[in-house]
Amino acid sequence: MLGTIANVATVVAGSLIGISIGRRLKERYINILFQALGLVTTGIGVSMTLESKNLLITVISIVFGALAGEAVNIERYLERLANVVKHSLKFRSERFTEGFISATLLFCVGSMSILGSFEDGLGLFPRLLYTKSIMDGISSIAFAATMGIGVIFSVIPVLVYQGLLTFFASSFNGIMTPAMIAEMTAVGGLMLIGIGFNLLNIKKISIVNMLPAIVVAPLLAYLFL
Questions:
Q1: Which residue in 3, 10, 219, 223 could disulfide with 120, CB within 3.0 to 4.6 Å?
Q2: Angstrom distance (rounded) from CA 182 to CA 195
Q3: With 0-12 CB in 10 A as exposed, 13-18 as middle and 19+ as buried, what is 48?
Q4: Within a 13 Å sphere around the CA of 65, how many CA atoms are in the beta-carbon half?
């Protein structure tokens, strides 16, 4: 769990720095920072999507995952969770929920979360999670500067998600193949592109409701690749 703990620590530290900087920045600087963050997120998403070995699996995963997520309306429950935290702690940030959800998706999707957690859980030096910690810490500065304190609470799902992966690493290690991880990464990349579009105000996309695709992709890869 050392890698995940380090990841959580850098996100908290980065968020605090971002909140402090954000209070001093003029609106035009906040806007350009937001646009830069949107472009970077989109670029990372594109690179991750290209890892797919079979784009048909990526397409099917997104379609069925989105339909399943929309039926359950996962976004509504995540927004409720964010709002409960916001009102319980009496935060006034207008972008609390947006910051919480956007940061959670950015920090949780991707192969580094999965492979890094496996590495950590198997007792190896958590090199990937330490690297991810640095990247997430830098990203959290930009996110918190533009979206506020909601970003810092993304450490809760990060801790739960990566903690569970680490805990079950020995079991998953015998099941997850490189092809399964590649397809999961590709689907995560598409979601990051969607987050980038949201940040750039190109179009509002319900990324949270597409989360089941992360499960569908490795299952299809296991069956057909």
A1: 3
A2: 20
A3: buried
A4: 26
| Residue type for position 142 | A
In which element (H, E) is residue 25 found? Answer: none
C-alpha distances (whole Å) from 187 to each of 97, 141, 179, 191 are 23, 25, 12, 6
Distance CA 87, CA 109 (A): 27
State both tokens at 162.
């990566």
Tokens of 41: 């997120």
Distance, CA of 10 to CA of 150 (rounded, Å): 15
- pLDDT exceeding 90 applies to what percent of the chain? 30
Residues 58-70 pLDDT 10s: 999 999 999 999 9
Distance separating alpha carbons of residues 225 and 213, to the nearest angstrom: 17
The 10 Å CB-count burial string (b at 16+, else e) for 5-31 is bbbbebbbebbbbbbebbeeeeeeeee
Phi first, then psi, for residue 177 (nearest 5°) are -95, 165
Residue among 2, 16, 3, 6 nearest 140 (CA)? 16
Condensed to tens digits (0 to 9), the pLDDT of residues 155-182 reads 999 999 899 888 876 676 667 788 888 8
Identify the three-state secondary structure at position 26. coil
Radius of gyration of the chain (CA): 17
pTM: 0.78
Q: What is the Cα–Cα distance from 122 to 141, expressed in whole angstroms?
A: 31
Residue 105 CB neighbour total at 10 angstroms = 24
CB 165, CB 114: distance < 8 Å: yes
